[in-house]
Amino acid sequence: MSFTASIFYPDKPKQFDFTLSEKLNWYSLISIIIYPLLLLFVEKSFGCDISKYAYYLLIIPVITYFIAGTIRLNEYENLNGSFIGSISFKEDFVIIDSVGYQYNKIENLILYGNSYSGQRNENTRSGPMYSNGVHNIISFNYDGNKIARNFKLDSERHIDELQSTLLDIITNEKITYQRKYLNLINEEYRAFMKFESFIAKLIKEKRIECTEGLLLIGYNSDKEAKEMRTKYCC
């Protein structure tokens, strides 16, 4: 079991914190709208006959708009923060900022870890295309204190390492079992025999209801569900 990640300390959010592509996109759109309106206003208000070549200048913001769209295809969101220290999961404890926390003394664990560097953003029409992978958080109570940190995941494989570690910690009950901890395991890892065996144990010990347990494991047909119910619930 091995997992290490960089701790991320976000800065206070900045107002209108646009990336380069977003700035170019907005500047060009505003220019495309405002510039011809301004020319028309001058013509109507002052009776000036503005040369058609003045309107040709609109090609500049139009080109800029398409340049912005090209830039965003390889652009990452603004980082707005810094990396200081690391978080590491060991056999019996997690180390955060060089301080060890034993799993069996951790309470109310909350962990979100599905954002990775290079992940495509949900908004595919504008703004940066890729995430920096820092929208992950771990928090828990320990000896009366609240511990909370953001951390970075470098790739999809890094997510796999985290999930494998969580699977080990939870199914071996290194951390005191709570039903909500099962939700920390992604669907892919719920297909592992290790997870299925743990759910079977919980059902047998009546710490989880049979139907709920089978839904967590997952099944593909009524026949498979019936076989699993016979195997684990009778």
Report on the architecture of this protein:
It is a single chain. The protein has 8 helices and 9 strands. It has a 7-stranded antiparallel beta sheet, with helices on one face. β8 (136-142) and β9 (145-151) form a beta hairpin. The model has no long low-confidence stretch (mean pLDDT 90). It is 42% helix and 23% strand. It is elongated. It has 234 residues and is α+β, with helices and mostly antiparallel strands. α1 (20-46) packs antiparallel against α3 (59-72) and α6 packs antiparallel against α7.
Percent of sequence in beta strands: 15-25%
Number of helices: 8
What is the global morphology?
A: elongated
Reading the helices and strands in chain order gives EHHHEEEEEEEEHHHHH
Count all strands and give the number. Answer: 9
What's the helical proportion of residues?
40-55%
Radius of gyration of CA atoms, rounded to a whole number: 27 Å
Biggest β-sheet: strands ordered side by side in the sheet: 4-3-2-1-9-8-5
User: Helix- and strand-based class?
Assistant: alpha+beta
Q: Distance N terminus to C terminus?
A: 34 Å
Contiguous low-pLDDT stretches (5 residues minimum) are: none
What is the arithmetic mean of pLDDT? 90
Oligomerization state: single chain
